[in-house]
Amino acid sequence: MDNADDLLAGLRLIAADGGQLGLGLDGEMPGDQVVEYDGSKVLLVENGLVDGLEGLTLDVADTPDGVKLVTVEQL
Q1: Taking a C-beta distance cutoff of 8 angstroms, is the pair 26, 10 a contact?
Q2: Exposed/middle/buried for 72, CB within 10 Å: 0-12, 13-18, 19+?
Q3: Are strands 10-15 and 40-45 parallel, antiparallel or unpaired?
Q4: How far apart are CA 59 and CA 29, in angstroms?
Q5: CA atoms of 50 and 73, how far apart (whole Å)
Q6: Exposed, middle or buried by CB within 10 Å (0-12, 13-18, 19+), for 44?
Q7: What is the pTM of this model?
Q8: Architecture per CATH, 3-73
Q9: What is the distance between the alpha carbons of residues 45 and 56, in angstroms, rounded to a whole number?
Q10: Beta pairing partners, 47
Q11: What is the CB-side half-sphere exposure of residue 63 using CA atoms within 13 A?
Q12: Can you give the residue ranges of every domain in the chain?
């Protein structure tokens, strides 16, 4: 099944090569941490990735290579 056609699919935060983060379309899996906004699921995060995100804020930045997902350390 193509996840783009699945109404229950959401954005999954994934660990990409080189320690970077990325987004992919996927369905919720057992053990996922789910970020909700206004009653809607907006982000799925694999449980093993959660600890490494503690104290970080995710943002999007325009870079010379295009728009990228970035983390911003909170003070």
Answers
A1: yes
A2: exposed
A3: parallel
A4: 24
A5: 15
A6: buried
A7: 0.67
A8: Sandwich (2.60)
A9: 14
A10: none
A11: 9
A12: 3-73
Q: Residue 42 corresponds to which amino acid? A: V
| Number of C-beta neighbours around residue 2 at 10 A | 7
Q: Residue 50 carries which side chain, given as an amino acid letter? A: V
On the 0-12 / 13-18 / 19+ scale of CB atoms within 10 A, 57 is exposed
At 59, is the secondary structure helix, strand, or coil? strand
Q: Which residues contact 61 (CB under 8 A, 6 or more apart)?
A: 67, 68, 70
The pLDDT tens digits of the residues spanning 3-62 come to 455 556 788 988 877 777 888 889 889 999 998 888 888 889 988 888 777 777 888 889
The whole-angstrom separation of Cα 17 and Cα 32 is: 21
Structure tokens belonging to residue 74: 């909170």
